[in-house]
Fold:
Amino acid sequence: MIHRLQRIVQEVNRARDIDSALVLITESLTQDLNAQACSIFLAKENEPGVMILQASNGLNPAIIGNVERKLGQGLIGTIAARAEAMNLIDAPKHKKFLLVPDSGEVDFPIMLGVPIIAHREVLGVISVQRAKNAFNEDEEAFLTTLAAQLATSIERAESKGRVSIEASTHTIKGVAGAPGMAIGVAMVLNRGVNLESVPDKKTDDIDGELKSFRAAVSKVCEELTEQAEKMRASLPEEECALFLAYAQMLTGGSLIDDTEKGISNGNWAPSSWRDTIEQHAYVFTQMEDRYLAERANDIRDLGLRVLRKLMLEQSIYLDFPEQTILVGDDVTATDLADVPLDCLSGIVSAHGSSSSHVAILAHALGIPAVMGVPNLPVKQLDGVNLIVDGYSGSAFINPDKSILAEYNQYLKEEEAIEQDLLVIKNQPAVTTDQHKVSLMVNSGLMSDHTPSLRSGAEGVGLYRTEIPFQIRDRFPSEEEQYLIYRNVLETFKGMPVVLRTLDVGGDKPLSYFPISEANPFLGWRGVRITLDHPEIFVTQVRAMIRANVGINNLEILLPMITGKGELEESLVLIKRVLAEIEEEVGEKITLPKIGAMIEVPSAVYQIEDICALVDFVSIGTNDLTQYLLAVDRNNENVAELYSSLHPAVLKAMCQIVEGAEASDTPVSVCGELAGDPLGVMALLGMGIDSLSMSVGSLLRAKKVIMSFSHAELTELLQQALALPDAFTIREMYAGKLEERGLGGFLRAGK
Ligand code: PEP
Ligand code: MG
Structure:
C-alpha cells in the first residue's frame, strides 16, 4: 500500500499544474481501488463554502466543471461540512443523495468519499464509486491516508496552477518577517546546484542556449571517459563500464533530443535539461524491477553533472535588478551577503518566521521581509515584479496598476513618518511622567556603524559576534577578531558595548564546522559549543579583552545559559584570559562587566542564582519565546503560534525582573520584542528601562515611550496579564497605540 501511495503522491508532485495533477489522481485511484469512477470536488477560490467538480474519471466528462455543491449540500457537501469520510453501500438511498443528471453515476451506487483537508481547511472531497462490492476498511483507510498526503500536494499544485507570470495580481500570504515595504523584481536564490531548484526561465537566445548546453554535455562526456580510464586500474571492468555508459547516454538519443526540443521551444537550457532528466528518471522509478528502478538515481546523477557545468556557463546572477527582492525556499542570513546591499530591497522566503536570523538581519538592515509562505511557487518567480509588505506578511506577484499606486502612496507615507521622527532623534527617551529609558542598538554586521551612532543610540546592547564567523570559510583568527571588536568599541567610545560570545548552532551553522543533529535548537548551541571547545572561546575572549584595552567600554554577554555551572565555567575561562593578558601587557586590566542571556526557561527559574554570579542579565525574547511555547522560531507551520506577547512569556519576564530586583541586577531586553512598538509598551510596564533593538526600530520605540506615561503602561500590563492569549493582548496594545495616532508603526500607511 505504501508503494501505491508514494507513487500517486510522486506523480502529483511532478504534475505541472493542478488540472494535470487531478487527472492523474482520478485515473490512478480508479485503477488502484478497482472502482468504476473517481471524482474530485475542490473549493472554489472566490466563493467560500462552494465546491466545484474539478476532475472525474469514469463518469460523463461533460459534467466536469458544471457541478457545484455547497457545504452540507448532497453527499459531497455533507462530507465537506462534517470533515468526515462516508462509506455507503447504496448512496442513492441516503437522504442527502443528490443525483447529478446525465452523469452515469446511478450505475455505481457504492460510494466512498473522504474530505481533503490542509491546515484545518477543507480543500475538497475525493470520491470513488463502484457497481458492486462494498469498499472495505482497508480501502477506506487507503483513501483517507492518500487524501491527507495529497492535501499538501494539491495545495502546492493549486498555487502553481494559479500563478501565471502574465496574469494580474496574485497575493501570497506568509508571516511578517521584518517591517517595511518594497516594490521590486524577484531574484530566485540558487544556492548550490540541484535539479529541484532550477527556476523556469524563457530565453530569446535559442542558439546561445543550445551552444552552452552542447558545450556542457561535451565537457561532461570527456570527464566521464577520462574517469573510466583512471578507474580501470582500481575498479572491476563492469564498474568502469558505468562511466562509459553515462558518457554514451550523452552522445545522442532522447536525453539530448528532448532537451534541445525544450530549448527550441524558448526555454533556457537548465530548465529544459531539468525537465528531461525528471521525465526520464520518473520512467525508471515506475519500473517494477528494483534494479531498473534504481537507475533513476543514475539518471539524476548524470543530470547533476551536466547541470553543474551549465550553471558555470550561465552568468545569470551577475546583473542584479536595482530593486532586488531575494526569493528562495529557505533564505538564510549568509545568502544576504550574495546580493550587493544597495540593490537588496526585500526578501520573500518559503520557510522561516519573524525570529529567524535572516529576518532579524533584514530588520537590522531595514529590508522588509515576508517569511514562511506556504507553497511559494519559487521556481516561477525569477524576474517577476513583486511588492513585499513586511508589516502584514504578504507579497503581491505581478501587482496591477491599482496596487502599485496604493503601495507607492504607502511608501510616501512611510517616508513622511520617518521624516517626522527625525525631530526626536536627539531627545532623550522619557515617558510623559519623566521615566527615562535607555535605548541601545543590536549590531553584528561588519558594515558601517554610522547609522547606529547617528540614531541617537546610547550604546550597543547586543553585538552578535557570529556573523563574522559565518561569512568566512574558517574560524577568524584572534587578530581578525581583535580588529572587528576594536572597531566597534572605538566607534562607541564612552558608551557601553555588549559583545556576545559566539552563539552558533541552531539556525546559525558554520560551513566549516558542520553539526548534524535531529533537533539543532535543543542541541549543541551557544555556550555549550564554546565550553566544549575552550580554544574557540578563549581566542574570542582574548580578542575582546585586548580590544578593550584603553577604551574600557566592553561588556561580555554569554548566550544560551541554562544554569550556574555554565556560567561558573565561563567565568573561570574569562578570568584566566584576563590574567594572561595582564601578564603580557604588564599592567592591571579591569574585568569587563559580564552578563548572562536569559533565553531558556531553566534560566528564568534560577534567576536569583544567576544574578548572584553576573553584573547584568539580558532577556533574549526570541529564544525565550521559542523554548517557553515549544514553537520552533523558524518553522512556518507553527509561526502563527509564535508570539512574544503570549501571556506565558510576559509572566516569565515579570518573574525575571522580580528575581533580578532582589540583587539589584540590571535587566535589559535584546530580543526582537524590544523593538516592537507593542513590546516596548509591555516591557516598560514591567519596569524594564533598557532596550536594545535594530537601529531601524529605535526612533519608533522612542516615539512610543514619549507618548505614554510609565504609570499608564504599568496599568496596561496588569490588564494584559489578565487576558487569555497573545492575540487579545496584541489587539489591546494595538488599540492603545492607534489612539495615540501611532497605528502607522504597525501597518502599511499612516
Ligand atoms: C534572542 O534569542 O532573543 C536573541 C537576542 O538572540 P538570537 O536571536 O541571536 O538567538
Ligand atoms: Mg538567542
Summary: The pocket of phosphoenolpyruvate (ligand 1) is lined by residues 360, 462, 464, 503, 599, 620-623, 670-671 (CB under 6 Å). The longest strand covers residues 121-130. The CA atoms of residues 35 and 462 lie 64 Å apart.
